[in-house]
Structure to design on (357 residues):
């Protein structure tokens, strides 16, 4: 058995290497170039309703009151959803892995923590009617101070963005707001170094800008089940998130993925599926919720900005004798996936830092 496994993996490795330099055709390329690849938006339903969100114009504000009365009377409007309509209106994707604290509402109820955060969702017969009704929702805002710089956010007295946490630092394992990695006596190594090199490195947030924006279509099926066609990159994460926020057994949800029109990490922790499914549950009709380009750029899930301070002790022959590193990861208003990489794999972070120069 052992010899067979060795031969199998050796042959697999040889096959992979033999592909180098060959014009091997991708499995999905024919559908792409002929326009036959199916995307979530290609699924048509009779009586399809459209969803648009009412979004905060402020970076940080309390919500005194949301008045949907005028919007509900607009032509074509079927229903207006607010936070109290969401069965479990708090989530973070990492909680599916028993990590992190639920901190982000699907529809904000008491306050907003970033510009563009949704506070209500209008369901209407057409997208144009939904957009018109969005403009008629009245929100009484109490605008609060905000902070946009990662180091300003952790200074004493900075406005707390997400009140699930006592400060603007993410807390993991119940009590820690930072992580320390130590290997040897760094100060002793600095003392014997011939040169000290220090730098501040700023990396901007990266918006993935897929051609296909985030979106989903949900519809009632038989036996109190619901189908959801989605552009997600992480089908089981999306299924778990929807089941959790809607307090619905996952066997009542039929998720269908497929072709993703660009994702690059930006379609992993999106929240459009629960809103589309909730719309289908409450109206009994198919509902589509898809972002436009402005929403994709403003409220999507970009790669977070990072700020690194690095101090190196270097010998004359170019060897790095010591490195002191302090890094800040700007996750924005809510945790989402920002803490998963360095907190789950400190050894990978260590190797990354050692390769930096």
């Amino acid at each position: 058995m052992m010899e067979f496994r060795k031969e199998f993996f050796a042959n697999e490795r040889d096959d992979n290497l033999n592909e180098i330099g060959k014009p091997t055709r991708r499995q999905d390329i024919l559908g792409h170039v002929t326009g036959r690849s199916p995307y979530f938006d290609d699924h048509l339903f009779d009586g399809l309703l459209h969803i648009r969100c009412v979004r905060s114009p402020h970076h940080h504000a309390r919500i005194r009151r949301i008045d949907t009365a005028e919007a509900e009377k607009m032509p074509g409007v079927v229903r207006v959803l607010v936070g109290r309509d969401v069965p479990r209106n708090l989530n973070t994707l990492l909680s599916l892995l028993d990590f992190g604290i639920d901190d982000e509402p699907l529809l904000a109820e008491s306050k907003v923590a970033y510009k563009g955060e949704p506070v209500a969702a209008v369901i209407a017969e057409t997208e144009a009617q939904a957009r018109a009704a969005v403009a008629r929702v009245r929100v009484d805002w109490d605008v609060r101070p905000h902070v946009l710089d990662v180091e300003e956010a952790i200074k004493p007295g900075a406005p707390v963005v997400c009140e699930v946490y006592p400060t603007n630092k993410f807390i993991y394992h119940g009590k820690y707001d930072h992580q320390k990695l130590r290997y040897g006596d760094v100060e002793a190594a600095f003392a014997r170094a011939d040169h000290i090199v220090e730098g501040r490195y700023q990396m901007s947030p990266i918006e993935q800008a897929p051609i296909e924006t985030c979106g989903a279509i949900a519809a009632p099926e038989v036996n109190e089940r619901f189908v959801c066609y989605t552009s997600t990159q992480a089908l089981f994460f999306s299924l778990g998130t929807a089941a959790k926020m809607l307090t619905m057994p996952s066997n009542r949800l039929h998720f269908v993925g497929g072709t993703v029109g660009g994702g690059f990490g930006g379609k992993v922790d999106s929240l459009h599926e629960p809103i589309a499914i909730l719309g289908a549950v409450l109206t009994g009709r198919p509902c589509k919720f898809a972002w436009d380009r402005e929403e994709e750029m403003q409220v999507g899930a970009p790669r977070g900005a990072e700020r690194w301070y690095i101090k190196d002790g270097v010998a004359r022959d170019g060897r790095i004798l010591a490195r002191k590193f302090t890094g800040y990861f700007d996750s924005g208003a809510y945790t989402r996936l920002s803490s998963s990489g360095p907190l789950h794999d400190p050894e990978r972070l260590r190797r990354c830092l050692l390769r930096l120069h």
